[in-house]
Design brief:
two-stranded antiparallel ribbon; mainly alpha
């Protein structure tokens, strides 16, 4: 059962101020969609994590998972060796058997890689993409994106108002929530930060940190600028420039 939190004036002011306009939660916009200040202030971290877990499970049901003994799963296991736990958080890696050139992460540490992306690039570039996704998790970009979806989702608002919680949502509703969360674009600031995080992971694993830039170049050369990974993780000259200059 939820308990009432004491909302201080400073916290209230913080919520009213909202965040930037690059994809972060903004209370004024949320209120226009029906979210109350109380809902925003009392949404627990555990609610967001539970939403990520349940919606990820629904995505797993809707997609064809590669068997653990498949070449794709075994290759992914080799690539992420040493990244099973990151800063105390266990990562959950699986492969979707799909030609889509894509990968995504959820706030609970779920990371899914489509077989199309594994087909598109060598191991070091796949590792860079995964490091980028881990960055979104560790830097709480995925958390903030799911939180925003919850606070602006009419179905969740209705369930919350009726005394229900995340677990009361139907599988279809969870699937819609998951799709909205993984389809939303990250801000440029989030992308730059996740790129830098990926480069740090590559260095820690004695891999070339420039593999992150090469992965973007590979995707743009083979598949253009839209769709899949580059759709939810848009590239731009500033991002590529930042990748090139951060590592000599």
């Amino acid at each position: 059962m939820r308990y009432l939190k004491i909302i201080t004036l400073s916290a209230f002011a913080l919520f009213l101020s909202g965040c930037d306009n690059e994809g972060e939660f903004n209370l004024a916009s949320a209120i226009a969609s029906g979210v109350t200040v109380y809902q925003a202030a009392t949404l627990e971290e555990q609610d967001v994590i539970q939403a990520a877990q349940l919606s990820a499970a629904e995505l797993d049901r809707k997609n064809q998972l590669a068997p653990t003994n498949s070449a794709y799963s075994q290759r992914l296991s080799r690539i992420v060796k040493g990244l099973e736990v990151v800063n105390g958080q266990r990562m959950n890696y699986k492969v979707y058997l799909s030609p889509a050139v894509n990968a995504f992460a959820m706030a609970d540490g779920t990371i899914r890689v489509h077989s199309g992306l594994l087909d598109a690039m060598p191991d070091d570039q796949v590792l860079a993409v995964i490091g980028h996704e881990i960055g979104h998790v560790q830097l709480q970009h995925s958390y903030q994106r799911m939180r925003k979806q919850l606070l602006t989702n009419a179905v969740f608002q209705a369930a919350n108002s009726a005394g229900g919680d995340i677990a009361s949502l139907s599988r279809s509703q969870l699937g819609d929530l998951a799709y909205q969360a993984i389809s939303a674009q990250f801000s440029q600031a989030d992308e730059l930060a996740a790129d830098s995080y990926a480069q740090q992971i590559l260095q820690q694993l004695n891999q070339d940190p420039q593999a992150m830039a090469r992965s973007i170049a590979t995707l743009q050369t083979k598949y253009g600028r839209g769709g899949g990974f580059l759709n939810s993780h848009p590239s731009n000259p500033k991002r590529l420039e930042n990748l090139q200059k951060t590592i000599n």
